[in-house]
Specification:
The structure holds two protein chains of two kinds. Chain A is an all-alpha fold. Chain A starts with a helix and ends with a helix. The longest helix of chain A has 27 residues. Chain B is built from twelve helices and two strands. In chain B, strand 1 and strand 2 form a beta hairpin. Classes of the chains: A mainly alpha, B mainly alpha.
Chain lengths: 305, 282
């Protein structure tokens, strides 16, 4: 397993050499790595701990807005600003953390209120650019190859963190909570505190990534708070398999490329198709496409023919 | 007045939540379907909104049947496997987005409202003027709730439904066909969403994206009423409180921030009063 990851990392590091005169593909790959890191960070609270954190777009959005805001009004460089973005997301996580004491679906709803509130506030605030959002001016540090490596680095770092968590005591506690909360608490796991830590980790990395995303695109719009984002990230994780290391990486790659294709070819029915894919994945591949028994599946198809 | 209508929004969700033990995030979409059915019937065939409500009840009932039929084979697995109902939540939210996009495709994303010719006629009761349509909606929702109350307390189906909501295994042991009953109960909950959609369509302007707004209102009431206890009276009290708080808020808040109210009320409820008004602390 480790060898595969190492090979993949080296492959992605060398890939830009091939793509140096194909900026469109470099951009797609950069955003792909962005989604991979986002999924890996969501996976900590959402997958390993099994908490349905629907409102992750709130964390991404506040990271993006804080970063651009600081750059615009206080001319703080975005690469410094993203850390405050991460801190802002952590603050939000602190605000909603009492919801973690409630049942999963209430927590999902509680986390959904965050992007909703932020959306209304940003949309109505002239200071934050209302519906036009904020823009950044490009600076010498802003180049596309650099971003590719930043996101690659983050993806690798998050993969290492996930690996560490999964093989640690903390990861076991999270998995226990995900399987049966009452049982976990009965065996002496401090359920709330463990979930709380997972949420903070997710929030911090989402905020950081949001800030980087805004810096990469040089602009941020209020629709960054769209619930649909959170949904897409969940879909990516669940496609690959919740709570695993390979799951979010593979799932994000598949769904991102697929949704690029869908968004360009079926412009109007984009959300419908994503919704249908989500339903199919949830019903037929609840453990992800990697854990699905493909051999058996193909054998059955062959037999019916 | 609004309180009565809010009660109809929430009671369906309460029932579904009692049965599935999980929040139906597609509830707002079902309400919206009710709105659009009423709009369509009113504009194409000049059918009065109140006469349209049985049709929207039936339609959302059928849609509910489809939703639960697709889900039924895997429902038990969903409940047992994996963290806090992530799968069910994802399933419902996927459904919500399907409905939203279909509505955008079919009805276009323009905001709509149903406005019958008698919409502006008002009635004066001791200095308070109330439009007939609000009064009628209020009475209609009270009537719906009364019917529901009678069904739940007097008939066999209703009593076994309540048994199911209280304790599924015990109900199963006493000879209730729980899976069939759960299907029926879910569909009735969805149908109630359709009715409340009809009632809301006469008051609110709606577009295909307003489903989450409706959903949040419903969830606020469910939490206020004490989550998952499926009591009609509790729901009623909760919806009146929500309506009053909202209206006071609308007076004081700047108009652009009014959509914020629901979110803030919901978040505050989740943070400070997650067990409802009558509830004890855990």
């Amino acid at each position: 397993m480790k060898k595969v990851f190492f090979a993949a990392a080296v492959f992605f590091m060398l890939l830009p050499l091939l793509l140096s005169n194909l900026p469109y593909y470099l951009r797609i790959l950069t955003l792909l790595l962005f989604y991979v890191s986002l999924c890996l960070s969501w996976n900590i609270a959402g997958g390993i701990a099994g908490q349905p954190l629907l409102g992750v777009s709130g964390f991404i959005g506040i990271g993006a807005y804080i970063t651009t805001f600081l750059a615009e009004y206080y001319s703080i460089h975005p690469l410094l600003g993203i850390w405050t973005g991460g801190a802002g997301a952590v603050t939000l996580a602190l605000i909603i953390s009492p919801c973690l004491k409630l049942r999963g679906d209430f927590f999902a709803i509680g986390s959904l209120t965050i992007p909703g509130i932020l959306y209304v506030i940003t949309y109505n605030s002239e200071y934050l650019g209302s519906c036009n959002g904020l823009t950044l001016t490009p600076d010498p540090l802003h180049n596309s190859l650099g971003f590719y490596y930043i996101f690659l680095f983050l993806a690798i770092a998050l993969a290492c963190i996930t690996y560490k968590i999964l093989s640690s005591n903390f990861g076991l506690r999270l998995a226990a909570i995900s399987n049966d909360e009452d049982l976990a608490s009965a065996t002496g796991v401090n359920v709330f505190f463990v979930k709380f830590q997972a949420l903070l980790l997710t929030a911090f990395f989402s905020g950081l990534l949001g800030g980087l995303y805004a810096y990469y695109l040089l602009s941020v719009l209020p629709n960054i708070y769209d619930f649909f984002w959170g949904l897409q990230i969940m879909l990516m994780c669940i496609t690959g398999g919740l709570g695993t290391l390979t799951g979010p990486i593979v799932g994000a790659s598949i769904i991102y490329l697929l949704s690029q294709f869908i968004a360009t070819t079926f412009l109007q029915t984009h959300r419908l198709i994503i919704g249908i894919i989500l339903i199919i994945i949830v019903l037929k591949f609840p453990k992800g496409i990697l854990a699905f028994d493909w051999k058996k599946f193909f054998a059955r198809i062959a037999r019916t023919k | 007045m609004l309180g009565g209508m809010y009660a109809t929004i929430a009671i369906g969700l309460t029932m579904v939540m009692g049965i599935l033990r999980i929040m139906n995030l597609a509830h707002g979409s079902l309400i919206l379907i009710g709105c659009y059915v009423t709009y369509f019937l009113f504009n194409q065939f000049q059918i009065d909104p109140f006469l349209a409500s049985p049709i929207s009840f039936l339609l959302t009932f059928l849609i509910g049947l489809i939703i639960i039929r697709i889900m039924n084979p895997v429902r038990s697995r969903m409940r047992t496997s994996g963290g806090a109902g992530v799968y069910q939540i994802l399933y419902f939210i996927g459904m919500a987005y399907c409905v939203e996009n279909l509505l955008v495709l079919i009805m276009t994303p323009n905001p709509r409202s149903v406005f019958p010719p008698y919409g502006l006629n008002t009635l004066n009761i001791g200095g308070l003027s109330v439009t007939y349509i609000r009064l009628a909606s209020f009475l209609f929702s009270i009537a719906t709730l009364a019917c529901l109350y009678i069904i739940l307390t007097k008939t066999y189906i209703g009593r076994s439904l309540r048994a199911l909501i209280q304790d599924e295994e015990a109900a199963l042991m006493l000879g209730v066909n729980t899976s069939r009953l759960a299907t029926i109960g879910f569909c009735i909950g969805c149908g109630l969403a359709g009715i409340s959609g009809t009632l809301l369509s006469t008051i609110y302007i709606f577009n295909p994206y307003s489903d989450f707004g409706f959903l949040f209102k419903a969830i606020c009431i469910v939490i206020l009423a004490g989550s998952g206890r499926a009591s009609i009276l509790g729901t009623f009290a909760g919806s009146f409180i929500l309506a009053i708080v909202e209206n006071i808020g609308i007076v004081f808040a700047p108009p652009a921030y009014v959509p914020l109210l629901d979110y803030i009320i919901l978040l505050a409820l989740l943070l400070f009063l997650p067990r409802g008004i009558g509830g004890r602390r855990a």
